[in-house]
Amino acid sequence: MRKQITIAAAAALALAGFTAAPAVAAPAPAATAAIAQATDLQQVRALILQQTNQQRAAAGLPALQASASLDAFAQDCTQRQADARSIFHCDPPADFGRAWAENVAFGQSPDRVVAAWMASPGTARTS
């Protein structure tokens, strides 16, 4: 499940910033595993977004913001990847426009995801 969370976070972050959405506070801790996993996913996404924005700020670029619609698209893409036991890029819906990028990762911590993206010139350009 942790690998799926990392993929989802990576895909969600890669798409974030195209559409701004208000920040949403993480839910209060709950007893169910499903809610605990959702909270973990939100924390992973938040860490990747925060670290990517630190890199963007250092490069003089504006911060990215989370987007609920892009997160939903990324989660669907992540589920398809998990079902296929493969990592691949997903085509966005037509209403996403042309100004977007997708960076994917698999099985890495948030720190390693961002470090790997920044070490790749092509990926760093779209982060």
TrEMBL record:
It holds the Pfam family CAP. InterPro entries: CAP_dom, CAP_sf. It comes from the Bacteria. Residues 1-25 form the signal peptide. The keyword Transmembrane helix does not apply. The keyword Manganese does not apply. Residues 50-123 form the SCP domain. Keywords: Signal. This is SCP domain-containing protein. It comes from Arenivirga flava.
